[in-house]
Structures are given as C-alpha cells and as structure tokens.
Amino acid sequence: MSIKTLAGLTPDGQIYYDEEMGFVEAMLPPGPWKTAHAPALLETEQGTLLCCWFAGSFEGGADINIVVSRLEKGSDVWTEPEYISNENDFSDQNPSLFNAPNGEIWAMYTSQLGRQPGKDNMQYTSVVKKQVSTDDGKTWSQPETVFPEEGTFARQPIQILSNGRWIFGNWICTDSEAGLSGDPSAFRISDDAGKTWRRVDMPASNGRVHPNVVELEDGHLIAFMRSREADFIYASDSYDFGDSWSQPYKTVLPNNNSSISAIKLRSGRIAITYNHSSAPASYTRKGAWPGLRCPVSVALSEDGGKTFPLIRHVERGEGFYGDENKGSNRQYEYPYIMQDKEGYIHVAYAYKTRIGVKWVKLKEEDIIGSVRGESTYNPTSGEVGK
User: Fold this and answer.
1) How distant is the alpha carbon of residue 112 from its chain centre?
2) Is the pTM above the cut of 0.90?
3) Distance CA 358, CA 349 (A)
C-alpha cells in the first residue's frame, strides 16, 4: 500500500494521509447518484473493509437503494460502489452490516414506500429487509423481509451479547401528529441466532431514537440515542440482557437531532461519534431541526458513559460560527464508528451535504492526544486544548 500525502480529497476512493489531522482519509467514489447518506462499515473475515450507504436522487424517493464500496486488504483505493438492493418501488435506507457466526454477511436495511402525492414522510410504511453475501460482499442474495411490522426503523447492526443473545435496536415510526418527534425505541431480541425474534419496548422513550447498544459487562447494557428535541444524547440501561430498560436520561454530550454511533473499544472505553452541536435553548418543542450537522466528533468515556472527557473533532467542515453564519456550513452527518482487528478506529459519514461519503482511519491515541503530548480534555465544549 502506498498512501499519498493529502493535497485535497478526490472523489475517486484514493486514500490520502492528512498531515494536519494526523490520520488517513478518503472520499469514496459517489457513483452516478446525486445523494449519499447513512453509511455503515464492516471488516469482513477476509480483512476487506465494506462501506455501504443509501444512494439515489433524494432521501425518501423510490429510486433510493443500498450500495456498497470495498477496500481490499492492502489496497489504497476504495472501489466504485455497486448495488446491494436495486428496487424501484421502495426507498431503501439506513443500511447496516453484520458478520453472522455462520460466515454470512447480512446487509439489513429499512424499506419504505416512496413519496406519495401530498405525503413527504413515508417512514411509517417501513419494514426491515435482509440480503446475504457469502463471497466477502461481492454479490448479494435477493431481499427478504425480516421484520414486517410497518414503521420499523433501524441503523445500528445486530449485536451479539456475552450470553449469545442477538439484539437489534429499532424505533417505531407512526403516521400521526407525533410521528418522528414522538416515535419510541424498541429492540428485537433473538435467543436462537436470528431464527425467531421478539420485541421489547423501551419505556417513555418517545423522541429518543436510533438506539446504539453497548454491553458494559455481562448482562449490563447501555443504549445511546438521538434526541428529536436536538438537546442531548440520551441513554437507557438494561441489567438483564435487554429484557427490560430504564427510562431514557440525558448524557453530557450534545445532540442536534442527527444520528450517532457507539461502540465499546478493546481498551474498555466507550466511543461515540456524533455531531458536537445542539439546538439553541429556544428549541424546547419536540422535533427541532437546527440544521447544523458539524463538526463530526469522537468522544471517549472511561466510566461507562457517565462522562466523556476525551473528545476530538475528526471533521471540522467550513468552521463558520454564530447564528448568522451557520447556513454557510455544509452538513457532515450520520457518522458510523467501528474498530478493526488491529485496533484501528474507522469513521464514515455523509460528506459535504451528502455529495458522497468520507472515511477516516485513526488510532485511539489520536483521539486521546498522547501522540503529540496534547490533552483533549474539555468536558463542556469538546474543543481541543493543551
């Protein structure tokens, strides 16, 4: 592999080293589509990196489908994306990738009716479908519906817990005045490796969505969630492998009503990637959409999600600040985080208001700041300081 020094990202999948940021990055080939959103990552058993997202004309359109790009082990260029799903009657969105224990790779995604006359949001028609690859993500089976309950939405992949249980975070969309802002979180649980599933609801979770499950210790789970009020990331605890959940409570991290992603690192720290921004205090209603989806940050917790003293911005965007200038910032949104077998951290997100997907690769130490002897400690703003 030969990594070039960054002179400016090119939309061809070429990996560059960014000397200022101290990590490698690439803009994945956008393909012929106008929009790219909600990326997800996976390292296959063969060491290939897969990045999938939904692409087409615009979110919610019937031409929106799931595509995937590959980074072969040892390569320095991501491949042109190819279709996973290719349907013309449904809007396929929010993909996730899962390494099943039997060697299969599952692509799970939501599938809803495309926009209807006078009806912009059709999420209440969504079901969850699955396609399977048995050749390292090169080809995929035909779609099958796994969760037929209409309104089911998802983003985090299936998680396998320490007792062998599978858990899949969902939220349930409705066609009502409280739709979106009032949607609750729920979980699909399987104790037979995905053959059968049952639903467990999270109490009082209306407007707390996109649950990301992390197992802190055997049976103790924490789910981190997006807030429709655009105030904070919320969390909920389970002490019985997901059979019951607490009411959601605020964490110290801000949220702007955009998706987040959380994992437990090999070090034991929790890592969350998100936009370090929230709505102004004047936004007290449910369903706030402040628009600012930047910076993309990674925050680390050493106490199970109570505090996040280590924060680094991995995407600063245009950097305009203040209410008058917020409209000058492009959107860098829906980040996804994973850790590979060698311990590297990978983050992917929709880039420059969805013209493509950007990927960055860095070490845990790059977030902590020990490489240059710096400290990233600032529990309030998240700004890097010495």
Assistant:
1) 19
2) yes
3) 6
